[in-house]
Amino acid sequence: MIRVIIAGPRGKMGSEAIQMVNNTDNLELVACLDRKHDGKTLRDIESLPNMDVPIYENIEECFQQINADIFVDLTVPETGYIHTKAALKYHVRPVVGTSGFSTEQIEELTDIANTEKIGGLIAPNFAVGAVLMMQFAKQASKYFPDVEIIEKHHDQKLDAPSGTAIKTAELISEVRGSKKQGHTAERETVTGARGADFDGMKIHSIRLPGIVAHQEVIFGGSGQTLTIKHDSFNRKSFMAGIKLAIEEVMKIDELVYGLDNILE
Ligand SMILES: NC(=O)C1=CN([C@@H]2O[C@H](COP(=O)(O)OP(=O)(O)OC[C@H]3O[C@@H](n4cnc5c(N)ncnc54)[C@H](OP(=O)(O)O)[C@@H]3O)[C@@H](O)[C@H]2O)C=CC1
Ligand SMILES: O=C(O)C1=N[C@H](C(=O)O)C[C@H](O)C1
Fold it and tell me: Which fold has domain 2-122+236-261?
């Protein structure tokens, strides 16, 4: 049995993750972290399963009282970062889905995990299809260095660009390097019209009600374009990746960034 703590249990991802853990034979939910229901149990909250799993508001208290193997964070960037640091301190392996960490924060968490020899994972996207999209985009950029990323998410999302878009740009940059695209005399008549700039490639973030999580990577070449596209239509699309991450992180003693690091 792998003993799991989930932070953000009332959220869209957290509530799906609880279901996934409850439906998985070798996983056991042992506590949740929730800023609004300290001292209660899941049973006390209408939207959550009828279970006697304790809820904590304070992460240190939670780790001091609960013996757990894995800490899953599905909250917001500022809190997720603090949670992940605490998990590493208490040697509870973090599996982090929360997006919006800075590069410096990811580097710092990686250093701590590696010093402590604790396995962990920060994954911008747990959907296997999205991981493949990123890998295919990296491959394509060798032949098509002119590329723009369009990511589309629901309008409750806090961070822009998405974690997936940033990871995609980072992977493409490993192959393509830095390259300014578009006309040399290009100028914006409305600020932001050309999107965010990452090593000269543009990232465009769309936020609308009615959509979940989608990304297109469009490559342009002489007389042709190539579009690599992934769509998550619901949050179940991320659950197989979280399950795999929980299981695989138990076998490693470093913190990795991206689900691709543990996929065969
Ligand atoms: N890696 C991946 O594959 C995926 C990652 N994500 C990321 O996961 C995270 C959660 O997404 P989602 O479930 O859609 O978001 P939700 O807004 O539905 O859920 C966020 C949860 O975090 C809680 N929360 C908010 N602020 C704090 C805080 N300061 N301290 C503690 N808890 C807090 C919320 O509680 P309250 O109701 O009190 O605000 C809520 O329960 C996001 O960062 C998102 O980008 C999402 C999908 C896939
Ligand atoms: O907030 C979301 O919804 C998602 N966030 C992640 C991201 O920032 O890439 C993963 C997925 O796109 C859904």
Answer: Rossmann fold (3.40.50)
Annotated catalytic, 142?
Answer: no
Ligand nearest to the CA of 167: 2
- All residues at 6 or more sequence positions from 130 whose CB lies less than 8 Å from its CB, including other chains: 164, 213, 215, 230, 232
| Topology of the domain comprising 128-233 | Dihydrodipicolinate Reductase; domain 2 (3.30.360)
CA 213 to ligand 2 center in whole angstroms: 6
Q: Are 153 and 13 in contact (CB under 8 A)?
A: no
Rounded CA-CA distance 260/4 in Å is 22
Residue 163 marked as a ligand binder: yes
> To 10 degrees, the CA torsion angle through 1, 129, 168, 70?
-10
Question: Can you give the residue ranges of every domain in the chain?
Answer: 2-122+236-261, 128-233
Task: Write down the catalytic residue from 40, 85, 157, 202.
Answer: 157
The model carries a pTM of 0.96
Say if ligand 1 is within 6 A of residue 238 CB.
yes
Q: pLDDT tens, 191-214?
A: 999 999 999 999 999 999 999 999
Ligand 2 near 141 CB (within 6 A): no
Looking only at Cα atoms, what is the longest distance across the chain? 63
Q: What is the pLDDT of residue 138?
A: 98
Pocket test for ligand 2, best of 157, 212, 259 (most atoms within 8 A of CB): 157
Is 31 annotated as ligand-binding? no
* pLDDT value at 216 more than 90: yes
**pLDDT grade for 44, boundaries at 50, 70 and 90:** very high
- With a 6 A CB cut-off, is 75 part of the ligand 1 pocket? yes
ipTM of predicted assembly, 2 dp: 0.98
